[in-house]
Automatic annotation (TrEMBL):
TM stretches of this protein: 20-38, 296-315, 336-360, 380-402, 423-444, 456-478, 509-527, 892-914, 947-975, 987-1007
Alphabetical UniProt keywords: Cell membrane, Membrane, Transmembrane, Transmembrane helix
Superkingdom classification of source: Bacteria
Name of this chain's protein: FtsX-like permease family protein
Species, as recorded: Asanoa ishikariensis
Length: 1015
């Protein structure tokens, strides 16, 4: 009992130092406990984020059949057999739809839909929600097809009559009254997600003039099924609730999902399961976190143990007199050891629960600050075992710290002889240095798997190596300066070198400071680079502040809708995307609006000035566009050198939006001057002149030739300016077939075509309102035989290959990443219309918008007939990237570096406080021998400069240099690594250096005050 009282009194008398021992032990245990706690919380976070990435309907379970009622029973029975799957799914949403052609004054097509709850997600502007055998139509349908409240609308199935059996009577199609008129609400409402509803804008119709109308809603499933010869499609969508997917349930969840996926369908009910792919991706993220977090946290734990070792050694050394008295009184080695380490062991025991609570608190703080919503901290046996291990490590550090003083002789204790470094310490340092160098070699020269494993451990090894070398260098410099100062009579330098050189504690403190500064500098550098890469990746993956994926039939429909919503061109842009396969890979084709690109898009690695230059380089215009309309075309031409076996003729090639080029017959060629004419019919939007042609007689493969001079073009009696006398405005078709030749020349008389042909193919001269080669921005290798080609042919938006030229080669393009072609979309639409037409089957239509765009842009797009099916956000993507596995590991590194620096500075201040009394005695003794106070102050300044300056330089160099070495081995954004840019992108490194400067200045002031100006 008396021993405990003595220990408690000792703690009380040395309260400040005792508090520091508790603090260090608490931090060491908390850092250790963080490993399992943070690993599990981070794994749960990436799991939640990964499964929440796709739309809930896509990530969940969808069942499709032809009957809704029976399907519900079958699906419910299957989900009862998979309870874990059922627990992560939300309330089901039923839908049944039938394609119909409303029989009214104008040809139209739409879908008769029953979807429970639809009225709650629409705005009813007139009438009421429909019941059985009743209809509710949109206000746009009222305007488009002239149907009103109370009208009876007959609904034949689309293609129903064509499917009747020969000899069977025609079906009797039902008629239903219109009892309500609705207005589209928010098409981005999750209720409408993935439905593709609301495509009935005034500009949306089929080629034969059939108008597409919005969905016709009814009140019961039986109404939808009552359409004779219809083909109803029923679906039940179970949205995923990401917060319900828990890490501990994943193994059983995978088993049940695999069982469902293997079945694929039950009794004519087809299943689509999106969660399986997300879980596989999440498992890779979890593995990356499990591998990186312990490697990041372990250096902090070891550093805490070492600082604790230094603190206990300093505190025990300060009790030399007490220990010497104990030995004089005959205490055994065991008794002396208990007396010496009793205080720190009791303090460490007190720190154990505090460390556990601190670890839990820090993990909770991280969960609330940057982990996914709904992530909780679970304390299990791994955290308790790791905490117990950290406790034993702290105890071992305390015992080792007191060992030298306890084993010292009574004379050495009373004379305060400094402990000398032994050969064993040199051997240990040599072993550590060898291991660090071997690990670095393995990191730089090893395989990808080994590099990934060592990538997070390497900074600690580099920091440790730098600390050992700096400590040794400081001792060597001090010993070299001592005789030199004696010879030159420099008293302050002599005293400072003697103080640093004779105390091994100085070398240990320098090593700790160097390690801490290297870790902090490395963490700040790597986080700075990763921040720049997250910004770069978000720009490449999203491309704008907001991206709306929309339903449309062709590019000009989206472009026109955007132009009506944003006539200024400053907040929105229509974009067409195609994934084109090439060489066992895919090339992303991004068709932007070059005039709006600067204002709307987010470019990776480019400034606004550079983006403006790119937009200018994408200009595809050449000669002015010649717009045509319905009317009589007349061409005045002179024909010479006509050679033909069967009659050749003159034609004009025109193009229309969304259609393939067509030829207008103008009459047979005849020698001499003549007027050739033909009738042109264009859609209301107009036509465009694409070229002139010498037409061969069908099947005529005999050689033929002609020289035709086009003198003038007229449409409806009005002249057309087709640049007939402008050099370069007309060109041959590229590539020209081997059986044809064409020479084009211009002069004041007009355009001269000198042609020959030995096949039945027509010979076409193209009007050059677009350049010969389409300008593109290329990311990655060229999709051509030569990956470095600057010009090649590749199908962009059309069905035929387009000749293109690379005007800029970049690492990444917006929304396309590192293997893409970006071009001016409207220009490429025009090109496709002059060749084989648009390849709309493979197109995805998007609207990019800035944050300044209207908040209801989705609703406005739906009102224009391009309903939104998915929305993506740049800010949400940045948040997601900041919660990915690499970012979570690097955040822990940043925290570890900051804590390491604070611990090292505390150890430095504590050492100053412990040594202050006898250092003051030394100063008074030196003053008595005649040493001036100015020399003592100079000594203190030089000593502080050596103890603080060497670690600063070595730590910063080791941190930044280590970052440069290991950056290629560390995933900065995604676990796959991918294309990474190694440059600073923010203020983290400068901020850490500024923090370091402030901390060191503060530490220097504290040192001077603690030691009363003696140091």
């Amino acid at each position: 009992m008396s021993g405990l009282i003595v220990t408690l009194r000792g703690i009380r008398s040395r309260f400040g130092r005792s508090t520091l021992v508790v603090l260090l032990s608490t931090v060491a245990i908390a850092a250790a406990v963080l490993v399992p706690l943070y690993s599990r919380a981070a794994a749960q976070s990436v799991l939640t984020d990964t499964v929440a990435g796709p739309p809930p309907i896509v990530a969940g379970l969808t069942a499709r059949s032809t009957e809704l009622q029976d399907m519900s029973t079958k699906v419910d029975a299957r989900l009862k057999a998979t309870p874990i799957v059922a627990s992560v799914l939300g309330s089901p949403q039923d839908t049944i739809a039938n394609s119909v052609d409303p029989a009214i004054k104008q040809k139209s097509r739409g879908r008769l839909v029953y979807r429970p709850g639809a009225c709650e997600h629409l705005t009813i502007v007139e009438g009421r929600c429909p019941g059985e055998n009743e209809l509710m139509i949109s206000d746009r349908t009222v305007e488009r097809i002239d149907v009103h409240m109370g009208d009876l609308v007959r609904l034949p199935a689309t293609g129903g009559s064509s499917r009747t059996t020969i000899g069977a009577p025609p079906p009797k199609n039902p008629s239903f009254p219109v009892v309500g008129i609705y207005r589209i609400g928010d098409p981005t409402d999750p209720y409408w997600e993935t439905t593709g509803f609301f495509g009935g804008s005034e500009f949306n119709e089929y080629g034969d003039g059939t108008k597409i109308v919005d969905e016709l809603f009814t009140g019961t499933e039986s109404t939808v099924r009552s359409i004779p010869l219809g083909r109803p499609v029923a679906s039940i969508e179970y949205p995923l609730v990401p917060e319900r997917v828990r890490l501990g349930d994943v193994p059983e969840l995978l088993r049940e999902l695999n069982a469902l996926s293997a079945a694929n369908s039950i009794e004519d009910v087809a299943f689509t399961i999106g969660l399986l792919d997300s879980l596989r991706v999440a498992d890779r993220q979890r593995s990356a976190i499990t591998a990186s977090v312990p490697t990041v946290a372990l250096p902090l734990v070891v550093l805490c143990w070492f600082v604790l070792f230094l603190v206990v050694a300093a505190v025990t050394d300060d009790r030399r007199a007490e220990i010497a008295v104990g030995k004089l009184r005959g205490l055994s080695l065991g008794g002396i050891t208990r007396f010496a380490v009793g205080e720190p062991l009791l303090l460490i025991a007190l720190a154990a629960p505090l460390g556990l609570l601190l670890g839990i608190g820090l993990t909770n703080l991280a969960a609330g600050a940057f982990l996914a919503p709904g992530v909780d901290v679970q304390v299990g046996w791994p955290a308790l075992l790791v905490g117990l291990g950290a406790l034993f490590g702290a105890v071992a550090a305390a015992v080792l710290g007191a060992r030298e003083t306890v084993r010292a002789s009574i004379g050495a204790l009373l004379r305060r002889v400094p402990h000398r470094a032994r050969r064993r310490a040199l051997v240990v340092e040599a072993i550590v240095a060898a291991l660090a160098l071997a690990a670095l070699y393995q990191l730089l020269a090893g395989s990808d798997g080994q590099s990934a494993t060592l990538g997070y451990a390497a900074p600690a090894l580099i920091a440790l190596l730098a600390g050992l070398l700096t400590a040794r260098l400081l001792g060597l410099v001090a010993r070299r300066r001592l005789p030199r100062a004696v010879r030159r009579g420099r008293l302050p330098t002599l005293l400072a070198a003697a103080q640093v050189g004779r105390r091994p504690e100085s070398a240990r403190l320098v090593a700790v400071l160097t390690v801490a500064l290297a870790l902090l500098t490395f963490a700040a550098t790597i986080w700075d680079v990763s921040s720049a890469n997250r910004l770069r990746t978000a720009n490449a993956e999203i491309g704008a502040d907001r991206v709306y994926v929309v339903n449309a039939t062709e590019p000009n429909q989206v472009r026109a809708a955007v132009a009506r919503i944003d006539p200024t061109g400053q907040v929105a842009m229509a974009v067409t995307r195609v994934k084109q396969s090439y060489n066992l890979d895919y090339v992303d084709l991004i068709g932007v609006d070059a005039e709006r690109m600067l204002a709307v898009s987010r470019w990776p690695d480019k400034s606004p000035e550079q983006v403006a230059a790119v937009a200018k380089s994408l200009d595809d215009a050449s000669a002015p566009t010649v717009t045509l309309k319905t009317g009589r075309v007349q061409v005045r031409a002179t024909v010479r050198a006509l050679q033909q076996k069967r009659p050749m003729s003159l034609g004009m090639v025109v193009g229309e939006p969304g259609a393939a080029p067509r030829s207008i017959y103008l009459g047979p060629l005849k020698s001499g001057s003549a007027t050739y004419s033909g009738d042109l019919t264009c859609a209301p939007a107009g036509c465009r002149l694409l070229g002139l042609q010498v037409r061969r007689y069908p099947g005529d493969n005999e050689p033929g030739a002609a020289t035709v001079t086009i003198e003038s073009l007229e449409l409806g009696g009005a002249p057309l300016d087709a640049a007939l006398s402008v050099p370069g405005a007309w060109r041959p078709t590229e590539p020209l077939p081997a059986t044809q030749t064409m020479n084009i020349s211009t002069d004041d008389s007009g355009l001269t075509l000198d042609v020959t042909g030995a096949s039945s193919m027509d010979i076409v001269a193209q009007y050059g309102d677009v350049s010969a080669e389409a300008p593109v921005v290329l990311a990655g290798p060229a999709p051509a035989d030569d990956p470095e080609a600057g010009s090649f042919s590749f199908p962009l938006l059309g069905r035929a290959p387009d000749p293109v030229k690379v005007v800029d080669h970049v690492d990444l393009v917006p929304r396309g990443g590192g293997n893409a072609l970006l071009f001016d979309g409207p220009a490429m639409v025009d090109r496709a219309e002059r060749s084989a037409g648009l390849n709309t089957d493979q197109m995805t239509f998007e609207v990019w918008a800035t944050d300044a765009a209207p908040a209801d842009l989705g609703a406005r797009l739906a009102a224009e007939g391009v309903p939104v099916v998915r929305t993506e956000s740049w800010s949400a993507q940045m948040t997601q990237l900041g919660r990915a596995a690499p970012a979570l590991a690097l955040r822990l590194y940043l925290f570890s570096g900051l804590v390491a620096l604070l611990l090292a500075l505390l150890a430095l201040v504590l050492d100053a406080g412990i040594t202050a009394p006898w250092r003051r005695e030394q100063a008074r003794g030196l003053r008595l021998t005649g040493v001036p106070a100015k020399a003592l102050r100079a000594m203190a300044n030089r000593e502080n400069l050596m103890v603080l300056g060497y670690p600063v330089v070595a730590g910063v160099v080791a941190g930044v240099g280590g970052a440069a070495l290991v950056l290629p081995a560390i995933a900065l954004v995604s676990i796959d690594g991918g294309d990474q840019a190694y440059r600073l992108g923010g203020w983290w490194l400068l901020g850490s250096l500024l923090f370091l400067l402030v901390a060191l200045v503060g530490a220097g002031l504290v040192l001077r005050r603690v030691r009363g100006g003696a140091r």
